[in-house]
Amino acid sequence: MALSSIFGGAAPSQQQTAPASTAKAVNVKEQLKTQIAQELAVANASELVNKVTENCFEKCLTSPYSSGEEGCVDQCLAKYMRSWNVVSKAYVARIQQASTSGEI
Amino acid sequence: MSSITQNDLASLDDGSKKEIMNFLESENSKQKVQMSIHQFTNVCFKQCATNVNNGNLSSQEEGCLKNCVNRFLDTNIRIVKGLQSIQ
Tell me, what's the ipTM? Predict the structure, then answer.
């Protein structure tokens, strides 16, 4: 799972529409899915912003605010996003390993 | 994009309702994974990011993050087992 997916990169892609559905039902259904996916993307983005702010505030703002800390915050953000990707890969690998060995 | 009305929802056929249910279920489980990743990153970044002078991860930091995730999960499994055994 890549970081891009939390910003809504993973659009709903199931196209198996039941033959009985009317065009209107299909429309409502797709709209509902898009709305849900968007809300989740927003929730994920705001969670990320909160966590990065918390962590980078801790790491960078040790004394009253000075412009030198802006660079630190930028580096910290980049590092946090890279960490997110590493953690995501490690976790997904672990889930896959557990599911193939029948642990879960 | 116009918003969905109560009527629109009520007029959905059973097949569509079922599809929406499945969609919600899969999004729900994806979201649980995402929230766990947020939590692990939060915990492990605190442990592993020794400095923020550089936006790139060093190989030690990367190894530390991977270990952190796996040890967190090991601990979690151990605790669940421990709780089960005292029941």
Answer: 0.84
> Domains in chain B, please, with CATH?
13-85 (1.10.287.810)
In chain A, the domains with their CATH numbers are: 11-101 (1.10.287.810)
Cα–Cα dist A97/A79, whole Å: 27
List CB contacts (< 8 A) between B9 and chain A.
Answer: 28, 32
Q: Please indicate whether, in this complex, the C-beta atoms of A29 and B27 are within 8 angstroms of each other.
A: no
The one-letter amino acid at A7: F
Contact: A21, B55; criterion CB under 8 Å: no
Contact A87 B69 (CB under 8 A): yes
Instruction: Read off the tokens for A18.
Output: 């039941």
Query: Which parts of chain A register pLDDT below 70?
Result: 1-21, 63-68, 103-104
Contact criterion met (CB below 8 Å) for B40 and B69: yes
Helix (H) or strand (E) holding A74: helix A68-100
Distance of CA A63 to the CA centre of its chain: 31
All residues at 6 or more sequence positions from A88 whose CB lies less than 8 Å from its CB, including other chains: A1, A2, A3, B37, B41
Say whether pLDDT at B11 is over 90.
Answer: no
